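quick one, 260 residues, struct below
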Amino acid sequence: MAAEVRAAALKRARTDAAGVADGARRRILELGRSRRTPLHFGSALSALEILAASASVLRPGEDDLVLSKGHAALGLYAVLAERGDLDPRAFLAYGRDARLSVHPHRGSSPATAFSTGSLGHGIALATGSCLGRALLGRSGQSHVVMGDGECQEGSVWEAAAFAADRGVSGLTVIVDANGFNQNSSLAGTSSGEGLAAQFAALGWQTSVVDGHDAAALTGALLRPVSRVPHVVIARTNKGHGCAQLVDAMPGAHFTSLPGE
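---
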């Protein structure tokens, strides 16, 4: 019976995540077309299924999410609005008031555990959160959403090595591997499989999935892991859902949406 209940819960989470990501993508594109101002559309659109899958399995009040690639905050807010965890009117004011700023700050939304924006700190922050819960005898887990370009920061690997050495359980990193950093392609310098190998060499459990397949992401996030941290390499397309943005990479990191 327990296995049947878990299977039913997994099916619901997978279905919910896919629908939430689709709805969040519509919200972002509608906002962009009404504003015609430059925003971080590409990074937000590539991360939507990741954020939706994470939100579908995290438990409010027990778990936390660290959006290490803080410039994708538009994607996080769209997912929260689609889930009913954020007032849609607040989402429409994104970037225009102090609450929903371009980079998230602690308390700006129900899912913002830390202020982020300066890249390379998410794993360290989440590791501290996991260790703190362990000291207090509390259960819970931390998800970190970060970019493959961000993995060029040395602090990422310092924190990853520490987390593995300490056997930090309850820590999951999801890498939005969209193949670009801010201004250039990562082709020839970084790949999903290469990043997985680097994490594995440090002692992390690894998964590599299609980052736009909400079912695959949800399954990976619910995968039983041993007492080591877990990394999910999610292969994505920057600007996914807007062909003009995809075709304009890498020059469309921070841009307005193309006209109809």
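Residues 33 and 260 are 9 Å apart (CA to CA).
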